[in-house]
Amino acid sequence: MSDLLHTDGSSRQHSARDFLRVARSQAEATVRSCHLYSIPSRCSCYHEFLLVHMDAGRERLMLIIERVPTNNAMQVLSSSGGIAKDTITIVRAREDHEYWQSAGQGPVCKGTLRWNQPSPRLLDIAFIASAASTTFKHYNLYIRQCYWYARITLAAMARAFPSCSTEGTTSFSRRWLSGFGSYKPSQVQLLVDLHTIVADYLAPVVPTVEGEQQSHHLLAPDHILREADITNQHGSRMSGGIQLFYGVLLAGWRQ
Fold first, then answer.
1. CB 111 within 8 A of CB 170
2. pTM (2 decimals)?
3. Which of 93, 168, 194, 220 has the most CB atoms around it within 10 Å of its CB?
4. What would the pLDDT profile of 37-83 be if each residue is shown by its tens digit?
5. H-helix or E-strand spanning residue 112
6. Helices 242-251 and 221-233, interaxial angle, to 10°?
7. Which stretches of 27-107 are assigned E, i.e. beta strand?
């Protein structure tokens, strides 16, 4: 797992889409819990993100999954902010991240999903976060900002892996902010459906030749798309859903 961090053990940040490739090399890593955090301001909260606790053997690391409210280093002030900057940062402890190092009130946990057994894999949450980033890639201050990205990823994980326990809440108490972070049930279901479609392709592949040492490897996303497209043409094993998956992940979800 040390390759997830920098050589000196410091945190490392990836785009949500790039992290999917990183997660492929960590086939045994699992997710223990997923926490929705907010960074409060004087009147409400101005940023939300997910803090994910993960296990891989003896090592435990954390992920910070967020839609950063900036685009090309400029604060997004208009309703449409162009392509969103969705990132996943790997840290050894939450205190290593700037959110817990800055002066003032630190992040506040609003709600938690917690799994025992079976636990989701790191690859599962990496795919859902990547799919959300790819299918809903445009930042909008009112409907697709950091609140929305954190909550829809959390909701998709809860629906895809319903054995979790739930603590706290993910809703705002102030009416005028109730619309921020709201997502449509159909948006959550789309992410879950995409995950279901590619679940077999995301699974580790173990050689079965007798006497050969077993080694795990995962198909790259482009190989997934290529094989799935061929399968759809010769047998339609995906029941037609692969055309939606193919178009969504390559071109983005157009609305």
1. yes
2. 0.77
3. 194
4. 998 875 556 889 999 999 977 789 999 999 986 555 455 555 566 78
5. strand 108-114
6. 150
7. 30-40, 45-56, 59-68, 70-71, 74-75, 80-83, 85-91
